[in-house]
Amino acid sequence: MTTAPNTDAHDPRIGLDSRRMAITIVAAVTFLVTWIGTGLLEVKAQDSYVSSPGPSLLRLALIAVSGAAAITIARGLRPIPRNVFIVITVFLCAVEALKSVFTIDTFGADTGVLADNPALTTALVTVSLIVAVAFPIVVALALAAVTAQLVPVAEAAAPAVLCRRSRAAAFGLFAATGIVLLVWLLRTMFVDAMFLFEYGDAFNALGAAVGFVSAIAALRVVAESRSLPADEPALGSSSSGTTPRSARTLAFVIVACGLLLCLESTLLAVGYPPVSSLGYTGWVISMFGLVLGSLVLAVRTLNCAPTHDAQPGDRAQPDDITQSDDSNVANDGTEVGSSGSERSMGS
After folding, report:
1. Cβ–Cβ contacts within 10 Å for residue 69, how many?
2. 290/265 Cα distance (integer angstroms)
3. Domain ranges of the chain
């Protein structure tokens, strides 16, 4: 009695299944919403017209939710990267929480405490810059790494489904690019249009959010396409357990720039300056990063899915091959027999 070899023992395809991927997408959207809310409350708490610690208390709750969402995203990483990510996330959330505590103490004691301590003010500004830039980048890295992992063939969608998903993801990326570019062009062409300057940033925030979600969906399509057998996807299968590095890099750029652009545009839409010390420079960098990355990843996503739907009758089954071989043998025997008869008659 022979035992069948365990082909799954060394299978590097350890990507998320459909249920865990859905949880990851929900966690990513939750992080996006709480991250924006944290930035809004930070600026509101620093507003001279606000004399209540309420925004800082609510900000503490949002920091905790965003940290939990980030850790949920990292569940699909390997043990060592996951542990490193958790440590970094806890550290960044603790720093943000300390900032809120300092703000609450300032309101409770004296509103001029920060102004009388330039060293403390400089430290808070530096920490704010580090967290505002580092946290989205770290989460974007984890999200791209988790989504880019190949999945078992049984978890990969059918070629026809992948075609629909690739078109939907590419449409979302093109829509995000179109929204951001259209607002920028209209602002450039119609400088005196107050409507564009009052509500244009709201559309930019919407475009950044659409690009953020679409980049995750596009990278998932690429990963599932690479998980199909070698004769299915246009890009071919991969045994390394990862998608092409270019697709992962593009998704990372879009997610990171989408987080920053959505936050900066939301702040500008409600009448506050950008929260990070990067200011408008960071807004411009994130905008062009989102636009360029979305365009390239959209084209890459359209090219990664199968270009035609495989029909059940298109592929030769083993039984059909056997029957065909048998008929060929029979035909060969008939031809040999007929050739022998002709020779005997000729003699």
Report:
1. 22
2. 13
3. 14-147, 152-310
Residue 158, SS3 per DSSP: coil
Which of these, 285, 323, 300, 306, lies nearest to 137 by C-alpha position? 285
- Reading the block at residue 79, the tokens are 């043990």
3-state SS class at 189: helix
SS3 88: helix
- Taking CA 113 as the corner, what is the angle to CA 108 and CA 117, rounded to the nearest 5 degrees? 150
pLDDT (tens digit per residue) in 97-115: 877 776 555 544 444 455 5
Side-chain half-sphere CA neighbours of 192 within 13 A: 0
Across the strands, what pairs with 242?
149
The residue among 108, 100, 94 whose CA lies nearest residue 46 is 100
What is the distance between the alpha carbons of residues 26 and 20, in angstroms, rounded to a whole number?
10
pTM: 0.76
| Tokens describing residue 172 | 């979302």
Q: Whole-angstrom Cα distance, residue 265 to residue 273?
A: 9
Please state the three-class secondary structure of 103-125 as a single string. Answer: HHHHHHHCCCHHHHCHHHHHHHH
pLDDT tens digits for 112-159?
A: 455 566 676 677 667 777 787 888 999 999 999 998 887 776 666 777
Give residue-wise pLDDT tens across range 200-232: 888 999 999 999 999 999 998 888 887 766 544
